[in-house]
Amino acid sequence: MLTPAQIAVIKATAPVVAANANKITGTFYPLMFERFPEVRAVFNQSHQRSSAQPEALANAIIAYASNIDRLEVLGPAVDGIVQKHVSLNITPDQYKIVGTCLMDAIGKVLGDAVTAEVADAWGAAYWQLAELLIAAEEKEYARKAALTGGWRGPRRFRIAEKTPESAVITSFRLAPVDGGRVMDFHPGQYLGLRLTIDGETVHRNYSLSASPNGKDYRISVKREQQGLVSGFLHDRVQVGDEIDVYPPAGEFVLREGAGPLLLITGGVGQTPALPLAEQALAAGRKVIYVHAALNGSVHAFRRQVDELAALHDALKPVYCYADPQPGDEPHMVGLLDEERLGKLLPQEPGVAAYVVGPKPFMAAVVKALTGLGLPESAIVHEFFGPREALA
């Protein structure tokens, strides 16, 4: 617990740290990777190169310092961090590495401004947050291990099926090598994978694209340009190969409610939407399933969604293609702007919109929905990588 004096120091120095937050995180990551190369495995290096991860950490530092005396407002953000860390099997020892390197980075950037008093306060603040996260993560690890089919740490899975879904998306059915059951999950959650590629260990998270069945899991992966892991999965992983898998995690789940559900996805963003749609339909909710794609060649799961719609009058699929090819049959052509979404937005009370896809897509859709009068509390969106501002 921070002392009143330490809190006063944090609040007094927070503006200086905020002004230099990007410099601090830009210094922190190279410093940590140089001193402790073993932690590189849990960080997506493409997010480092794009600056997404450093910017996300900078924003988190600013938010934490700004709310140092009312941490309860950070509850949802903390829940998301816990889920992400559990999916990567983060351990207490790694918090020591991060804490040491972060304080060194602050010292390098701010220099003489980091007095002994300032260093003490920020060090105490870091460990206050770290201990909160460590305790929450330990609770989540134990909870998952106690579930039927649950486990803790890496579990060996075999590639049972490999199915092309479109020109750029392939599904992988994963079955446990030990032959036991697998824990259920909440639709919208993801799996953490640990792979070894040319001698290098890497971690990635992929959304679960099929509803829980107690026997196996399905993920669906888009081939990314210069994507190390997606290219490996598409080109080199074959049926029968084995990988390490961590238990399902994630907070992008269906909230309570009985109103219509508007699922809006772009590209591979529809992977978590598939089980979400099935869950909502099973609960008796109306579902408008909107998917945006470039054209039919990259549109995965169209037949699956159409077959589901044939079984459920409450499901309405809407496909919007930006550049349709001959033979494509989209319901809409162009981009999902306010005018097009206005035609789809249900007029019944209790509407909830779930938006998943690339950041520019989500930003445009969320802006359009708020322009149509849908309150922010009714809009849920999910990032595949580090959380960033949509603005």
From TrEMBL:
Residue ranges of domain FAD-binding FR-type in the record: 152-255
Cofactors: FAD; heme b
InterPro entries reported in the protein's UniProt record: Cbr1-like_FAD-bd_dom (IPR008333), FAD-bd_FR_type (IPR017927), FNR_nucleotide-bd (IPR039261), Globin (IPR000971), Globin-like_sf (IPR009050), Globin/Proto (IPR012292), OxRdtase_FAD/NAD-bd (IPR001433), Riboflavin_synthase-like_b-brl (IPR017938)
GO molecular function terms noted in the UniProt entry: FAD binding; heme binding; metal ion binding; nitric oxide dioxygenase NAD(P)H activity; oxygen binding; oxygen carrier activity
Assigned EC number: 1.14.12.17
Similarity field: Belongs to the globin family. Two-domain flavohemoproteins subfamily. In the C-terminal section; belongs to the flavoprotein pyridine nucleotide cytochrome reductase family.
Top class in the EC scheme: oxidoreductase
UniProt keyword annotations, A-Z: Detoxification, FAD, Flavoprotein, Heme, Iron, Metal-binding, NAD, NADP, Oxidoreductase, Oxygen transport, Transport
Occurrences of domain Globin (ranges): 1-138
Pfam families according to UniProt: FAD_binding_6 (PF00970), Globin (PF00042), NAD_binding_1 (PF00175)
Species of origin: Azospirillum palustre
Reported function: Is involved in NO detoxification in an aerobic process, termed nitric oxide dioxygenase (NOD) reaction that utilizes O(2) and NAD(P)H to convert NO to nitrate, which protects the bacterium from various noxious nitrogen compounds. Therefore, plays a central role in the inducible response to nitrosative stress.
One GO biological process term: response to toxic substance
Protein name: Flavohemoprotein
Catalytic activity reported: 2 nitric oxide + NADPH + 2 O2 = 2 nitrate + NADP(+) + H(+); 2 nitric oxide + NADH + 2 O2 = 2 nitrate + NAD(+) + H(+)
